Amino acid sequence: MTSKNSRNAATSLVAAGTFLSGDITFCNELVIAGTVNGSVTNSGEDSGVVKILEGGQFTGEIMAPHIEILGQVEANITGTVSVSIGPSANVSGVIRFMKLAVSPGATISGELITMDEKTDEKSVENQAST
What we know:
Number of domains: 1
Largest sheet: 10 strands, parallel
């Protein structure tokens, strides 16, 4: 298998029209085009990506290095590297991030918390439980 095929094999998809309730642990990339209610956690390295596409809906908690939102999200979000919120996104909840990019047209309601480089995973978990 070539490296390109290996990378694609690690992409998980919740397709449009699919409803999933529960906890998801993924390794490389998780793409949500349907509806997910639960928690999403990355078990891989700092390259893990969660993408919520336009039309996708998510409710719960997300913890991953990179998070890209174009759909509707009601969640506690922790992007240990970056959070990107696109122009069609509607996001509510607590957003913790190292780097944040928000496109014009995005709607955000909730709390934005900047994490510094000294913040480790344990302190993020402690903040989430309070």
